[in-house]
Design goal:
- The chain is mainly α and 146 residues long.
- The chain contains 10 helices and no strands.
- The chain starts with a helix and ends in a 6-residue tail after the last helix.
């Protein structure tokens, strides 16, 4: 389920779920977002939203919706070997720490291994996560490869 939701992110569903869980009234959302009820309903059905709207909703609902996209990038980016072959270009963009794996991602990967849905080699190939990293997770969370 987690894998499917992250692979094809439908942000409106996540927003609707967060509103339900936080029990936020529609009038409060409308006031905060400066919109009407129909526009909020459209947000619930939207597959994607502008970053400005998503940032406001993240603040209101106290949930980092952007992290969903980060998870997607971590799990479904291109092969790192191709990146090594490209020329190193100095970027003006902010550089972030490499390790962005959340507990949810780690537990998801370990669950795949535990349930024998994929082998360690398959996980390394598909998700571009280093073998050593996975072994560290196994040790930290007291799991062994079955």
């Amino acid at each position: 389920m987690f894998n499917e939701q992250i692979k094809d992110i439908h942000i409106g569903n996540f927003i609707k779920q967060a509103v339900f869980e936080k029990n936020i009234e529609l009038t409060r959302i409308c006031n905060f977002m400066e919109c009407n009820e129909d526009e909020v309903q459209k947000m619930y059905t939207a597959e994607d939203l502008s970053t400005k709207v998503l940032l406001k909703l993240s603040k209101l609902l106290e949930y980092d919706f952007f992290r969903l996209y980060t998870y997607h990038l971590l799990l479904y980016t291109s092969n790192p070997i191709a990146k090594k072959n490209s020329k190193a270009i100095r970027s003006e963009l902010p550089q972030f720490r490499k390790s962005m794996y959340s507990t949810e991602i780690i537990m998801f990967i370990l669950e795949i291994i535990d349930n024998k849905e994929m082998t360690l080699d398959q996980i390394v190939a598909k998700y571009n996560i280093g073998r050593t990293t996975i072994y560290r997770w196994m040790a930290k969370y007291k799991r062994t490869e079955k």
